[in-house]
Amino acid sequence: MAAPEWSETAMLVIDMQKDFISAERGSPLLVAGGQAIVPTVIQAVAAARERGILVIWVVREHDRFGRDVEHFRRHFYSDGEGPTVKGCIGAELADGLAIADGDYKLVKTRFSAFFATNLHHLLQGCGIKNLVVVGVQTPNCIRQTVFDAVALDYHSVTLISDATAAATPQIHSENIRDMKNIGVAAPTLQEWCSFDASSSSVSYSMLSQYHNFVCGSPSSSWLRTASKLARMVPVLFLFLLYKNKTSTGDWLCF
User: Which of 116, 121, 134, 233 has its Cβ near the most Cβ atoms within 10 Å?
Assistant: First the structure.
């Protein structure tokens, strides 16, 4: 049974399937950085289970003819053997990963785990307020799911930075930066494991605020205020010129 403080947290493991992870499959949707994070994802899932956190395996499973896939990807299914077809090897979890008793499997057909699925209702029914996200890939399914979670007002959304991956480290880091800018925390697995639930939301919030302050996030309140003040300077200058002209008949000179 989960400790009371962790019972309101769920971990989403996104798209850790052979067609996205295993190079030997030759899938057109292979994520170059995916295989490298498998050991970290295994550790993250183990840590979540140890804490009694609900683990939700979010996977893609498509019709063999691609009738339920995004329009721009349907050409991959012209021969009836496209990526992550339901019941085929490519849709299986990557080697070393397995759904355990008590875990939950959620099938999606689009980038976000929330789009046209029962995920939000499931989480609400389980009393989940906080989400931890791992898997692939950062600019697509991870990002879309995280943004939707923030829009749905989950209290805290955490991305484990070394248990997620993209095609390149640069793409990965740039998307993490964007997610930090909307209040998402991105600790490493080691950092996440060092937090206890009672302090995690505060700690994650502080980390995000610190990042925003140092890096100049457009979402940080201090930067918005400074930006507004900067925009006011030219207006104030023109007002002073006008006021001097109307009161003395001469333009103010400097």
Answer: 134
The reply to whether omega before 137 is within 30° of 0 (cis) is yes
Ranges of residues in the chain with a pLDDT under 70 are 1-4, 197-254
**H-type alpha helices, the chain:** 18-21, 38-50, 119-125, 143-151, 169-180, 189-194, 197-215, 221-248
Neighbours of 153 (CB within 10 A): 7
Q: How far apart are the first and last CA of the chain?
A: 74
For 182-206, the pLDDT digits (tens) are: 999 999 999 999 987 655 554 455 5
Name, in order, each residue with C-beta under 8 angstroms of 247's C-beta and a sequence gap of 6 or more: none
Q: Are 168 and 199 in contact (CB under 8 A)?
A: no
Angle made by CA atoms 223, 228, 230, in degrees to the nearest 5: 95
pLDDT digits over 130-163, tens only? 999 999 999 999 999 999 999 999 999 999 999 9
For residue 224, which amino acid is it? R
Q: What is the four-CA torsion angle of 22, 23, 24, 30, rounded to 10 degrees?
A: 80
Q: What are phi and psi of 25, to 5 degrees?
A: -70, -25
Interior CA angle at 111 toward 155 and 25, to 5°? 125
Q: Is 197 helix (H, G, I), strand (E, B) or coil?
A: helix
Cα separation, 240 vs 194, whole angstroms? 56
Q: CB of 128 within 8 A of CB of 158?
A: no
What residues are paired with 105 via a beta bridge? 57
